[in-house]
Amino acid sequence: MNKLLQPNMYVKSVFDIDLLKLKDKGIDSIIVDIDNTLVSWNTKYATENVINWFKKVKNMGFKICIVSNATKTRVVKFNEEVKVLAIHRAIKPRKKAFLEAINKMDTQTFKTAMIGDQIFTDILGGNRVGLFTILVTPLSKKELILTKFIRKIEKIVLRDILEEGNR
């Protein structure tokens, strides 16, 4: 299996991430996707649970930055409640937005985790720059047609990753 597609961690949701374990690994910064990672892709605002998760992350001393392929309007609207650094139209998996986020947070790649729901954007992009990558289960099955097609390929890749991990 191509190591660039393999996450360092796979969890059901952001709420299942052991933040203390990340601290123990030397992680001080988190890059996070929005759509189907924090909220379903058609949810405009952060939910109360997500707002509380951001508060917890900040209170634990993590720096945090949203990196999303979504439009500026989408990212700004979502960020109204959580008030963190944010990058829109990231064109993940290209490296530029990940490196920009690391620069904005004033950290280093080996101290940064990337949390997202897509192997071919979030995980591939994060791995390309040397981040600790965390794959979460997508929150919604309702997605754009292209994303639905990519999910079929991701299922095959994920199955191979999980089988490889059980060897």
UniProtKB/TrEMBL annotation:
> Could you name the Gene Ontology cellular component terms for this entry?
cytoplasm
Write down a Pfam family by its short name.
Hydrolase_like
The protein's name in its UniProt record: Hydrolase, HAD subfamily IIIA
Source organism of this protein record: Caldisalinibacter kiritimatiensis
Q: Which UniProt keywords apply?
A: Hydrolase
Write out the GO MF terms. Answer: phosphatidylglycerophosphatase activity
Q: What NCBIfam families does the annotation carry?
A: HAD-SF-IIIA (TIGR01662), YqeG_hyp_ppase (TIGR01668)
